[in-house]
Amino acid sequence: MRALGVAVAGVSLPLLLGVVLLGGVLAPQDPTASVAAAWQPAGPGHPLGTDGLGRDVWSRVLAGGRDLLVTGVAAALAASLVGVAGGLAAGWAGRTWDRVLTGVADLLLAVPTLLLALLAAVTLPGRAAVVVATVCGGAPLTLRVVRDAVRSLRHSGYVEAALCRGERPVAVVVREVLPVMRGLVAADLGLRLVVALQIASALNLLGFGVSPPAPDWALMLRENMPGIAANPAAVAAPAVALGLVTVALALAVQTVTHHRGSDG
Amino acid sequence: MGETPAVTETAGRGEAGRNVSEGLDVRGIRVVDAGGRPIVGPLDLRVPPGRVVAVMGESGGGKTSAVLAALDALPPGLRRAGGTTWWNGRPVPPGRAARRWRRAEAGLLGQDPAADLHPLRTVAGLVADGFPRGRDGRGDAVGRVLAELGLDPREVAHRRPHRLSGGQAQRVALARAIVGDPPLLVLDEPTSGLDPATVELVVGVLLRRRTTPGAATLVVTHDRGFAERVADEVVTVGARPAPRREPATAPRRRSRGEPVALRLRGLDVAPPGGGPSLLTSVDLEIGRGELVAVVGPSGSGKSTLLRAVAGLHPPTAGTVEVEGRALPARVSDRDRSSLRAVQFVGQDPLGALNPAHRVGAALARPARVLRALPAAPARRQAEELLAEVGLSPQVARRRPRGLSGGQRQRVAIARALAAGPAVLLADEVTSALDAVNAHAVLDLLEDLRARQAMAVLLVTHDVTVAARADRVFAIDPEHARLLPVGSAADAAAPDRDGRGRRTPEKDEKENADA
Questions:
Q1: What family does this chain come from, according to its entry (chain A) (predicted)?
Q2: Which of A145, A229, B168, B283 is the most exposed place for a label (fewest CB within 10 A)?
Q3: Nearby residues of A6 by Cβ (< 8 Å), 6 or more positions away
Q4: What is the value of pTM for the model shown?
Q5: Same domain assignment for residues A2 and A25
Q6: Helices (H), B22-70
């Protein structure tokens, strides 16, 4: 099982990510140009048929993931960074800092993430909205997890040894606490990544993100729904692509975490 | 391995069949690490019912690994490369079957019992976990077993692990292991953090187990005296322990005329969770190069006193002076030279080292921070320190995960020495070491205090360790006082069957009386 995970992470993931990121270049036809009749089923020249405007679905699937992936990864990294920094500060400083930071985190957690995402979407441009919504919805969770872990490490022998040699608090946190928590942070980043992709695709699906005619998996789901009877592949292909990337990323993060955990 | 079918035929019979004896029978067990290097073995172990077998050997010799391999409970990174385990004449196949067998038949006490206690559960709940489901009288059994181990059930039953001292946590873990009277009991260093009075209680529990029908007991220990008292048979793993080396320099009994290295004045120490003071008005002077031991029952505040001096747990009143200079109460307020002057070695060798850092980096860091040494000399010094505590330079490249408990404790001591302290605070530093290594570490401290005039304040539960001190103090928990041993309230633990050497002060006083 673990060997399988390593294989997936080591070979398929870079391949998959490469295809998603370079998809626009690999696309056999212009993803935004009408090249054939509307709603053609799969056939020669169009392996996945065409959509309502006669565009090649295969080309659009190849080109339609990059924006989503880049936005999602950026949003997840931002959420993780904010959450880890907040968690370290709250867990290490304790007292007032702890109360203020966890209070803010709890407040944000009380608001449904989707509501936050919609609020962000109507006030901010698409990509920024994804980042803001992921940070507001995900960073509080990261903060709580990291804070609790830091608190349990505060009195460990190596932290006290560092204090006894007069390391500054920042040095103790960065040199002693953070390395021990890298597995935890990596696992948490995986969760944030999945949520970020969900938010990004949800906003695109609802029409707040990228605007037509740009190729985008979530947008394609919405655009191609009316023609599902004539060309089911036009809906199925972007859905599968979205699922595949999410699962592969989650699996990869998990494998890396376990791998690290055993020799760390 | 070819004999396995023959054994299965006799399985279930009351008598031993084909050389396989009743109880636990382990043949040719071998353990290798992830890289296939042999760690221990091949080794045979036989624990008949009603018997207690002790496994002894040098620290890092693979005692624990051998026993865990027999139970098929090795931690990740180690692998059983060969050997079979029989239980009452049946082979125990590795994997899920072994897990079921352990759950049904075995009680296990790990080497770091405090870490095995779930932090959010109460003592009563933790101990009750060890009691088989569906059997009556759980509450009574929990109370009885806690009392047997010298814990007041009314007082500790509702506490959570963070409010237990190291020795109390160990006894709670032991209580969990024995509460269900498991047919097979495996104890890994059950006495390492205990004061002599509590060790007596553990001895009592083990002697009683001998009379329980069908109860087999396996004890991993480095304490030869303990092994001889409880065990019917002693198995030695790894190299034979070398005879105890005489210290290079004869221990010097220092007079009061030496310059004072550490002076405590009117120190009041409260327990970490708050509550009435553990110690009040502690006045203590330690001369340069002097070794002073503090003994006292588990939970009496020995460790807390050291932490107060180290600045990790500020005292509620009083002052700490090192070489005539008063130190700020909190470690964060101390300047570099004050920090260098006092170094602390903790009780728990598992938590003492950062799992993410290699040993070399952990040892080089204090020299870099406190003495502003550049990277290369700090690294060289790290290797010298390793040699000084009796470890090979190769250890510098390892991470704590790959070290035994004893090796970790030596690294922790080496890290404290890297600062070049005037006062070393040592909290049960020898409790995780076998007798040979423990004395080697004490010899090392002896040597250091002779050469560098380093004062050592040592907290211990072990009379033989305390006997090597120049002066011994005992904590009287009832009056929260620190008293020199030999005075009215002699709180020093009783000698164990002549094993404990008496402290010189005590002898002197008794000679004077006679």
A1: Belongs to the binding-protein-dependent transport system permease family.
A2: A229
A3: A255, A259
A4: 0.66
A5: yes
A6: 63-70
Nearest CA-CA distance, residue B355 and chain A, Å:
7
Q: Is the distance from CB of B165 to CB of B151 less than 8 angstroms?
A: no
Q: What is the nearest CA distance from A250 to chain B, expressed in angstroms?
A: 24
Asked if A86 and A110 sit in the same domain, the reply is: yes
Nearest to B365 by CA among A167, A221, A1: A167
Q: Which residues of B touch A166 (CB under 8 A)?
A: 331, 334-336, 339, 369-370
Residues A237 and A261 in one domain: yes
Tell me the torsion sign for CA atoms B507, B509, B512, B514. negative
Nearest-Cα residue of chain A relative to residue B425: A164
Bridge partners of B219?
B54, B187
Q: Which residue segment(s) compose the domain that A22 sits in?
A: 1-65+215-264
- With bands split at pLDDT 50, 70 and 90, how would you rate the model's confidence at B373? confident
**Residue A50, SS3 per DSSP:** strand
Residue B221 has pLDDT above 50, yes or no: yes
| Interface contact flag, A179 B339, Cβ < 8 Å | no
Pairing relationship of beta strands B342-345 and B325-327 according to DSSP bridges: unpaired
Q: What pLDDT was estimated at residue B258?
A: 64
Which pair of tokens denotes residue B318?
A: 């009083």
**Chain A residues with CB inside 8 Å of B416's CB?**
161
* The token pair that represents A173 in the structure block: 């946190």
Interchain contact, A161 vs B370, CB within 8 Å: no
Superfamily of domain B24-236: P-loop containing nucleotide triphosphate hydrolases (3.40.50.300)
Max Cα distance, chain A (Å): 76
Domain's final residue, options A195, A214, A233: A214
A 11-40 residues inside an 8 A Cβ radius of B: none
Closest partner CB to B352 (pick from A157, A163, A167)? A157
- Interface probe for B, chosen from A150, A159, A164, A174 (most Cβ of B below 10 Å), is A164
Q: Are both A128 and A190 inside the same structural domain?
A: yes
Under 8 Å CB pairs connecting chains A and B tally to: 63
The complex scores an ipTM of: 0.75
The C-alpha atoms of residue B370 and residue B252 are separated, in whole angstroms, by: 30
Domain match, A52 and A109 both:
no
The answer to whether A235 and A225 have CB atoms below 8 angstroms apart is yes
- pLDDT tens, per residue, chain A with 264 residues: 566 666 666 777 788 888 888 888 888 888 888 888 888 888 888 889 899 888 999 999 999 888 889 999 999 999 999 999 999 999 998 889 999 999 999 999 999 988 999 999 999 988 899 999 999 999 999 999 999 999 988 888 899 889 888 888 899 999 999 999 988 898 899 889 989 999 999 998 888 877 788 888 999 998 999 989 999 999 999 999 999 888 888 787 777 776 554 443
**Where do you find CATH 3.40.50.300 in chain B?**
24-236, 260-491
Phi, then psi, of B474 in degrees rounded to 5: -125, 145
Query: Domain B260-491, CATH 3.20.20.70 — does that match?
Result: no
End-to-end, the C-alpha distance of chain A in Å comes to 20
**Mean of all residue pLDDT scores within chain B:** 79
Q: How many structural domains is chain A composed of?
A: 2
